[in-house]
Amino acid sequence: MKRWVSMALLLGTAACLTACGEDKTAEKKDAYRQIGFRCMETGDYEGAVEAFQNALDQSAGSIGEEEIDTCYYKAAALYDAGKPEEARQVYESLLAYDETNADAAYLLGNLYLVQGNGEQAKQFYDQAARYAGNNYELYVGIYNQVMGAGYPEEAEQYLRQALNNTGKTGYDYVQRGRIYLLLRDYDHAQEQLDEASDKKHEDAPLYLAELYEVKGETEKAQLLYQAYAENHENNPEALNRLATMKLELNDYEGAVNYLKLILNADESLQNDQELRRELIYAYEQLLDFSSAKTAMEEYISKYPDDTAAAREYEFLQTR
User: Which residue ranges in the chain fall short of pLDDT 70?
Assistant: First the structure.
């Protein structure tokens, strides 16, 4: 009963629907979600919260993947609107409904970490890892958060948990190879990535390129990077992987190139805001403050309610 009540608080109250009314309700739900997405893109986070709640109100008490997904967006909008406690309550309700929800546990851990509560963050990161299964991205996400907070040994423990997965698909091999790369265990990385390559996984060349780069085999690495980019030139997700890898390798010039390719190719990306932040960061690391300032001006024009960005822009004006 507790699980149901927790989610009912998020979904709101709604009357039972007739069969002929369900289609109209689904249309309204989707329309509200689209409004929420547009509000997020323009930095209207209060409007996004309202839209996502309106979408949830259409659910008539039913809880499915779409409702849970909408809750994630609502929590993100609440956080960006400067309401971290309300965002926390959304994640806690998701976990009260399903304690095995690794994504909700991970996001709640992130929230506690940025608030400086490392002990609580660890509790939820441990819960996320316990139920992550073969969600390698989640393990890497925890690693990046904990590493960024200055705890490398603890961060690596989460990566080692991921290696307990013994799947035999190309995806499993490529992800274990990626994790061994992060652990700087290049021999095991080579073994895993060679297996992934044998299974024709499309990302195997990408991580093999990273492996060659860190081993100093630059020519091999560049050939693989170039081939991967050419084969995925119209794929923003693939180019985003390249940009992320370059950032992890502190190759900020390479990251700038790929981020600009993505942003110039598609103006309707759902992660447009995140990509623009990464572009500004890369310019700053290159000490190219003129380009960083220009990129920040474009960012603020799209996301005027981001007060942290406005403060950073004031700093860039002095450089």
Answer: 1-23, 61, 266-270, 307-319
